[in-house]
Specification:
Blueprint (H helix, E strand, L loop, with lengths): L1 H19 L17 H7 L24 H24 L18 H24 L7 E4 L6 E4 L11 H13 L7 H4 L9 H26 L2 E2 L13 E2 L17
Antiparallel strand pairs: 1-2, 3-4
Helix pairs in contact: 1-3
InterPro entries: PS_antenna-like, PS_II_antenna-like_sf
GO cellular component, one term: photosystem II
Organism: Dipteronia dyeriana
């Protein structure tokens, strides 16, 4: 339902902005000056043409293709409707016991397999966007600009494997996430004596991690003290009330009362 609401809002908002957008002067009256919000994001992802015959660059086109501003907005609305129907279906059939086999009492559906299929299809969709649309294999690419944002155009972006993605650099930034700074044991360059000395930011991060660990174990301790034996959980079929575990029952003593007075 959340995805349906987001996709539906994006599609309807894009259609509204297209209805009020004036593409006649993209230099002195660009989209950001007209208060557009969704269209700039679509343009950044490589959508530059409209079924109305205009382009965001100021030219006139005769064949905008399917994936224009209107096409993408309509696809979002259709996708929103499908997600909404899926949400209603799951809301109606929320009780998984209706999918159980009456003869064996076991579920007739392989729920982990169904969940895996959902994740696989979502992953294929995300991978396809990056592998085809962004790289230009089947699509325009995305908006690529210079470091100052002065010039730019829609072009394909190919993956680059170099010094920025080698294991050593990935390790440095992983340590930055853990310790608060980029840290490496390079004694030759840093002339270090091998003793780890972090910055105040690193100690601040380490202190938070330590307190988080203590709070986590405190949560486990208190959670273990407040376990409830629920009659609906199938723990004790003779139990007819929600009784705090350990409050009325002694281990190994069947004479202990089972009900709350």
């Amino acid at each position: 339902m959340h995805t349906a609401l987001v996709a539906g809002w994006a599609g309807s908002m894009a259609l509204y902005e297209l209805a009020v957008f004036d593409p006649s002067d993209p230099v002195l009256d660009p989209m950001w000056r007209q208060g557009m919000f969704v269209i700039p994001f679509m343009t950044r992802l490589g959508i530059t043409n409209s079924w109305g015959g205009w382009s965001i660059t100021g030219g006139t086109i005769t064949n905008p293709g399917v994936w224009s501003y209107e096409g993408v907005a309509g696809a979002h609305i259709v996708f929103s409707g499908l997600c909404f129907l899926a949400a209603i279906w799951h809301w109606v059939y929320w009780d998984l016991e209706i999918f159980g086999d009456e003869r064996t009492g076991k579920p007739s559906l392989d729920l982990p397999k169904i969940f895996g299929i959902h994740l696989f299809l979502s992953g294929v969709a995300c991978f396809g966007f990056g592998a085809f649309h962004v790289t230009g294999l089947y699509g325009p690419g995305i908006w690529v600009s210079d470091p100052y944002g002065l010039t730019g155009k829609v072009q394909s972006v190919n993956p680059r494997v170099g010094c920025g993605s080698d294991p050593a650099t990935v390790k440095k930034y992983a340590r930055r996430a853990q310790l608060g700074e980029i840290f490496e044991l390079d004694r030759a360059t840093l002339k270090s004596d091998g003793v780890f000395r972090s910055s105040p930011r690193g100690w601040f991060t380490f202190g938070h991690a330590s307190f988080a660990l203590l709070f986590f174990f405190g949560h486990i301790w208190h959670g273990a003290r407040t376990l409830f034996r629920d009659v609906f959980a199938g723990i004790d079929p003779d139990l007819d009330a929600q009784v705090e575990f350990g409050a009325f029952q002694k281990l190994g003593d069947p004479t202990t009362r089972r009900q709350v007075v």
